[in-house]
Amino acid sequence: MKINSTRFKCIWLLTLLTLPLSLQAQVIFRDDFTRASLGKDWLTTGYAKWSIVNGLAYNYIDGAGGTLTSSKKHTATSYVLETKVYPLKNGYWREYGIVFGKPSPDADYGYILKYHPYYNLGLMLGRSDGNEFYPVILDWEHITLDPDKQYSIKIVKSADGKIEVYLNSGSGYSKDPVLEARDKTYPALGHLGLRVDTQTAAEPYYVDWIEARSLPSLITNPEIKGTEAYEVANMGVNVPLYIDRDYNFVSVPAFLQGAAFIQTGNANKKDTHYSFLKFNLDQEAIVYVAYDPRAKVLPAWLNGWQKLADKIYTTDPGTSYLHVYSKVFPAGTVSLGGNLAAPAAGALTNYLVAALPSRPSPGREGIFPEITSKFQAAGPEGFSDEITANGFYPNPARDKTAIRYTLQQAADVTLTISDKQGRSMATFVNERRQAGTHEEVMDVQQMAEGIYLYQLRTGDQIQSGKLLIKH
């Protein structure tokens, strides 16, 4: 297959495709601090100075007010905020905090999670109504964290006002939150950030990464044998695989980036029940199971699933990758068996479950009666201004087809094509594009007739749909 970079002019018919797109805002914000300076994502002028040292956000203050605040205000109302920090050393009136829900970066309003080791004051979730030093206490736990350990901290905020806080010191997050409260004062994620306050000598403080992502809705109510225990997250690099292990994704196939997936428990890897895991799908979806390649025999419940050529790579020390199987399920309850349900043998790590929509969004079918576009469900932030796109034209395509999109700022762009089972066929674009309007032209003369799935990814934004080829 050839890639034709000649700009493909299609002006008047593009107006047929200007209905709003449902872009999936799975990752709202992420920073790994892998550069020389903080950059425009963070406010620096007039704020306590943070810097980047060896790929970590770094603060070393003597006195109060070491706050790192995001420059962008986010509108998501249902989200997960997660970060990894260290060391949490004790000292005279030393506090560590995560701020979120701030409607303005300059005012002390919003939510704050504080760890205050001095006098064993512990971990506190509060609402600041004008003073972050003395917030309204929503929940409090008198615990002492190990200053020699790195801690991942996860805050889960639902649109109904429920806020949960989880801790992970290397062995995975516990099933139950450390702190839990319900408050609707600041519904949106707003500005987020981190802070350090002290009234004693400065100590180095590091942040490995910070991420905010929307809560997925495709998969809901995961249960194991009638007990709600597993969590739903979004698949991506550095995201934990399990709720009880500190193993992360190293790479996932392009079509699964940002997909809703169930973080199972590795402790359940020896389960033999025929009906073990149940969850609900809010629409018809392609369900994917990532399974241990060391298995000598698969469980019977995986019979009839399509094995894909794609692999998922992880930091699991027992196996560096997982095989991927797919099957289409209608909306409703899905029931899967245990990892070692009969006649399975040889699997030494528990499976994972992911899902992607397989049906088109309502209202798109009439544009081209022969082909309906599939768009992933929008996250709570809705339509993002990072990318606007208009789908492929012509569609159906005979020899060449093009997709036009506009970037508000420079971003890494990938354009991939898969078959109906989700198996990757080709990557047409994998480059960085500057701000402005672009057209990617595909030569499809050598591709067989049929329906294909495409995914256009720019930074953290995804547009996906169907492309029909008719020669």
TrEMBL record:
Secretion system C-terminal sorting domain: residues covered: 393-469
InterPro entries assigned to the protein according to its UniProt record, in alphabetical order: Secre_tail (IPR026444)
Tree of life domain: Bacteria
UniProt keyword list: Signal
Membrane spanning residue stretches: none
Signal peptide segment: 1-25
Gene3D superfamilies xref list: 2.60.40.4070, Exo-inulinase, domain 1
Protein name: T9SS type A sorting domain-containing protein
Originating species: Dyadobacter sediminis
